[in-house]
Design a protein that fits this description.
The chain is of the alpha/beta class. The protein has a single domain, classed as YbaK/aminoacyl-tRNA synthetase-associated domain (YbaK protein), CATH 3.90.960.10. The chain is 25% helix and 25% strand. A five-stranded mixed beta sheet has the order 4-2-3-5-8. The radius of gyration is 15 Å and the shape is globular.
Length: 169
């Protein structure tokens, strides 16, 4: 089964996860997200789909929406090869998503378990995160503990890393 917007919400309902949902026009940038003025805008996170330069490792990176993505620092924190943004083909093929809809829920469609989720360490203390339910026409505020429990139940690899560490010169 492919997890789209309604399937993600039904899955959360089945698990008894309390979440807030706001349906809205399609958004493709963080600026457009900010313009929505969601009631939980302070919980919205940025999601990046990255791969290493050899296409061996894929990462779904979750970080505060106002934080710049420093791929060199992230590479150092992960102990990874040089990082690049994954292609739209990989995004669709592996996670069933399209640009603008990247979400941690995309790993529900990763049947081969190739993608690991990487959270910025600063998110560890957040009570909830605001993410798309695999579609950029809605945003959910989901308790972080419930999202992590979902990953544990489905054996999705995830970790928290300090994305502020400067790479060694």
């Amino acid at each position: 089964m492919a997890f789209g917007k309604e399937e993600v919400c039904a899955y959360l309902d089945e698990r008894g996860v309390a979440y807030d949902r706001v349906d809205h026009e399609a958004v493709f940038t963080m600026g457009a997200m900010d313009a929505l003025e969601l009631p939980f805008a302070n919980a919205v996170v940025k999601n990046l789909f990255l791969r290493d330069d050899k296409k061996r490792n894929y990462y779904l990176v979750v970080m505060p929406d106002d934080k710049p993505a420093n791929l060199k620092a992230l590479r150092a924190a992960l102990g990874a090869r040089p990082l690049r943004f994954a292609s739209e083909e990989d995004l669709h093929g592996m996670l069933g998503l399209r640009g603008g809809a990247v979400s941690p829920f995309g790993v529900l469609n990763d049947e081969e378990g190739k993608v690991q989720v990487v959270f910025d360490e600063v998110l560890r203390d957040w009570p909830a995160v605001g993410v798309h339910p695999n579609d950029n026409t809605a945003t959910l505020r989901v308790p972080l503990s419930d999202l992590l429990a979902l990953f544990q139940d489905r054996a999705v690899p995830y970790r928290f890393v300090d994305m502020d560490v400067a790479p060694a010169q």
